[in-house]
Amino acid sequence: MQASIHVSREPSVQYLLRIGDTCLILAQRLAEWCGHAPIVEEDIALSNMALDLVGQARAVLTRAGKLEAELGGAMHDEDQLAFLRDERDFRNLTLVELPRGDFAATMLRNFALATFLKLLWLKLERSADAELAGIAGKAVKEARYHQEHAADWVVRLGDGNDESAARMQAALYGLWPYVAEIFESDDIDEQASATGLGPRWSELRDDWRVEFSDVIAAARLVLPADRPFRSTGKSGRHSEHLGYILAEMQHLQRSFPGGVW
Amino acid sequence: MSDVDSPPPGRPKAGSAPSGGSAAASAASAGAQVREWPLWEVFVRSKAGLDHKHCGSLHAADPQMAIQLARDVYTRRQEGTSVWVVRSDQIVASDPADKAAYFDPMADKVYRHPTFYELPKSLDHM
User: Fold this and answer.
1) Which of A32, A90, A105, B15 has its CA 20 to 30 A from that of A3?
2) A6 assigned to some structural domain
């Protein structure tokens, strides 16, 4: 087995890992639909989006690895960061590691995250880090499409028949408690804001809420009440689900280090 | 996705009353299989200045879904800059039985081909 790597605790590196890991783990979850979506066209659409997210994750993790070296740490490439980190060193939102659920849950989660990522990329287009700004310029177009695609499904199912509306409402109740983590800011956000690397994620809350609520209203769904629960994936304390994802995702590289196809 | 060469189900024959504009007619044609999503024909323009070309078909519940799925299914390798979709049951097609009467008479009218002069180079796609 390939030994695990440990990544710098530099706030700027951690900030990038939060973005890259969120894209990577969501991509992994979306890829689970490959061959299982309700219709073949949607199967292709979900796979396309998973690949968009993998592309974003690759670019951001590559930048994180280089930044780590620039700040005096070890140099890690995208593959090492994706395949050789332990669960506690992943910095994705807990929301993306939750099981994919039914199609309603997948679409609601996609909508919540695509809306957030679109707003984040828009801010990151003006990042002081030129490479990150370049990544954001490309990614925001992809996020816009992901948001539109998922929003249409949320409305179609939420304002559909009794079965689809019940499933979409259940998805909203189930996922809502994990949304709050997105907009919790901490020292890493403060540092990113101070250096111009990127926004505090809490700054995106109001815009997100407006866009999200509009679609939820159009879908005739009920927004649940906010609760004090906060998930903590961004700081490396994950749900029980991430370990299983990593076992599947990392198995090959851990067993056959450097293996390519 | 259906075979692109086979006529879509429920397609009216040439000469039958046009179905566009008649909600009753299209509702009747869809009524038999109301649980099936309608079929859409997809047309993709590969770059500005070229025509939209038919490239296949797909099933979708509504126009917005049809456009999005067309984008996802038919333009994922940079094939397109614009997409049209049209309900297959809205297309009026010539009857294959009319093929001889409709098209064979053109076979010996070579004078209709503009082969006697050169097109300007700027007219790339005539």
Assistant:
1) A32
2) no
Kindly state whether residue A202 falls inside one of the protein's structural domains: yes
Provide CATH code, domain B23-94.
3.10.20.520
A132 within 8 A of A60, measured Cβ to Cβ:
yes
Q: Contact at 8 Å (CB) between B94 and B24?
A: no
Over residues A178-233, the pLDDT tens digits come to: 999 999 999 999 999 999 999 999 999 999 999 999 999 999 999 999 999 999 99
> Shortest Cα distance from A44 to chain B (angstroms)?
6
- The residue in chain B having the minimum alpha-carbon distance to the alpha carbon of residue A49 is B72
Contacts of B60 in chain A (CB under 8 A): 41
Asked whether residue A2 is assigned to any structural domain, the reply reads no
Write the CATH number for A116.
1.20.1260.10
